[in-house]
Design a protein that fits this description.
The protein is of the alpha/beta class and 284 residues long. It has three domains: 1-126; 129-213, no CATH class; 216-282, no CATH class. It is built from twelve helices and seven strands. The strands form two sheets. It has a five-stranded mixed β-sheet, with helices on both faces. α11 (256-265) packs antiparallel against α12.
């Protein structure tokens, strides 16, 4: 899944709260920096350079990289764009990696024969989701599924965002990013969250990722199967035994509106033969 795009959406909304929470900075103002000219080909969309001004007026360059999994080249990549941005901005720099999934290979320092480079490594999966829920830190709710106790608190994070006073556009983005991040730990959670909040998620630019990854299709398939089962349950309740020929025909129907029509009529027909005739007429 395109977690880098989801991370970009989140950073645009929470460029103050994320450095405040994860780096302990007193953020008065922060802005995402524009990419440097094309010679910086090593930069990725998961890299987020920010110029942060604290409450005393001091500016810092914050170089943040959000990664779903560890890569041995991450430290060198971080060092590369740290150097490039420092040449332009000439202020104190803080380098940080937010790692979303567990890795035994992740390290906090790069060293070779000439260079020793230390940076901050935030293992999101080791953080306690209960603190985020208790403190109602809305900007960090999308990370909740990835944290300790996160799975059991996803519903509360979802409700906190949906019922918050955030602008509707921000809610849509936050809920969508949380859904995308939840795909890192579960194949079922994204479907559940989409089914619950699709009405608002479709307003987020990041929702295209969900459609590309098949969660929208998965939701539709779930509704199709639910409609099939509803028809068969109704027929069994009324006529005891449903012939295998009817079962096969229903299982072969992929059109959701047709299945919904058959489900509605399955409680109205007087006989199975009447239902067979209905199927023939509707599926023509």
């Amino acid at each position: 899944m395109h977690y880098d795009i989801a991370a970009k959406v989140l950073m645009e909304k929470c460029r103050g709260e994320i450095p405040r929470r994860f780096l302990g900075l007193s953020v008065a103002e922060s802005s995402l920096l524009q990419e440097l000219p094309q010679e910086t080909v090593s930069l990725k969309r998961s890299d987020f350079p920010m110029l942060v001004t604290d409450e005393s007026g001091e500016q810092r360059l914050v170089l943040l990289e959000i990664q779903s999994q560890w890569d041995r080249d991450i430290p060198l990549r971080l060092l590369d764009y740290r150097s490039r941005y420092l040449l332009k901005h000439q202020v104190e720099a803080i380098s940080c990696i937010l790692l979303l999934r567990p890795s035994g290979a992740a390290v906090t320092c790069y060293k070779d024969t000439e260079v020793t480079y230390s940076y901050r490594l935030i293992r999101v999966y080791e953080l306690d989701a209960r603190e985020i829920i208790q403190e109602k830190v809305l900007c960090l709710m999308p990370f909740v599924p990835l944290m300790q106790h996160g799975k059991e608190l996803v519903d509360r994070a979802d409700s906190a965002l949906y019922e918050s006073s955030l602008p509707r556009e921000d809610k849509a983005d936050m809920l969508t990013v949380m859904t995308i991040f939840s795909g890192l730990i579960s194949s079922e959670l994204p479907h559940l969250l989409v089914s619950r909040r699709r009405d608002i998620m479709i307003e987020s630019a990041a929702y295209d990722i969900i459609k590309q990854e098949g969660h929208e299709q998965g939701l539709r398939q779930g509704k199709i199967q639910e409609a099939r089962e509803g028809i068969l349950d109704n027929l069994e309740a009324r006529f005891d035994v449903v012939p295998a020929s009817i079962v096969r025909e229903i299982e072969g129907i992929e059109d959701l509106p047709i299945l919904k029509a058959l489900r509605r009529n399955s409680v109205k027909v007087s006989t199975l033969d009447e239902f067979k005739d209905l199927m023939k007429n509707i599926t023509r």
